[in-house]
Amino acid sequence: MKIIIINGPNLNLLGQREPEVYGSLSFDIFFNGLKRKYTTVELHYFQSNIEGEIIDKLQEVGFSYDGIILNAAAYTHTSIGIGDAVKAITTPVIEVHISNTFARETFRHQSFISPNAKGIIIGFGLKSYELALQSFL
Ligand code: DQA
Fold first, then answer.
1. Are 85 and 55 in contact (CB under 8 A)?
2. Which residue stretches of 62-113 are H helix?
3. Does residue 90 register a pLDDT over 90?
4. Backbone dihedral region of 17: left (phi > 0), alpha (psi from -120 to 50 degrees) or beta?
5. Domain coverage including residue 39
6. In the chain, where do the E strands start and end?
7. Does the annotation list 99 as a binding residue?
């Protein structure tokens, strides 16, 4: 089973960015833990701060991988392009968010990803990614 986690803008700063909202663990450490725990999965990771690079990656993996776990971060709320890419590909996408976006500013309540996601996992901290992974398994 081939799964990729795709993270959007500013998520490269996890661990140091607003730790009260996003926690104090770096994504690299978390991701290595996931890889060690789920040894039967071929788990990949991609992060970009650039909208077009996220679209390119979705197109690249979106017809061959078994699952995509996507946290498009702020682009979730703004990017019709990423939303369209999720619609265009055949690999199922699970949308995840670390924080409960519905408990935050109203501009975070809208998502251009959700209408075409297989499912949505929001607000469980980094555990959101693991829950998404388990749902693919
Ligand atoms: C986020 C929520 C977004 O609103 C925000 O822009 C992020 C992270 C989350 O995982 O909680 O960068 O996607």
1. yes
2. 80-88
3. yes
4. beta
5. 2-136
6. 2-7, 42-47, 67-71, 93-97, 119-122
7. yes
Q: How far is the CA of 101 from the centre of ligand 1 (A)?
A: 7
Task: Please give the mean pLDDT across all residues of the chain.
Answer: 96
Known active-site residue 97? yes
CA distance 53 to 8: 10
Cα 74 to middle of ligand 1, angstroms:
6
> 25 pLDDT band (50/70/90 cuts)?
confident
CATH number of the domain that residue 110 is part of: 3.40.50.9100
Is the shortest distance between the CB of 120 and ligand 1 below 6 Å? no
13-20 long-range Cβ contacts below 8 angstroms, 24+ apart? 14/98, 14/126
- The helix, strand and coil proportions of the chain, stated in percent and rounded to the nearest 5, come to 45, 20, 35
Question: In this predicted model, what pLDDT tens digit does every residue of 29-85 receive, in sequence order?
Answer: 999 999 999 999 999 999 999 999 999 999 999 999 999 999 999 999 999 999 999
Q: How far apart are CA 51 and CA 42, in angstroms?
A: 25
The count of domains in the chain is 1
pTM confidence score: 0.97
The amino acid at 95: E
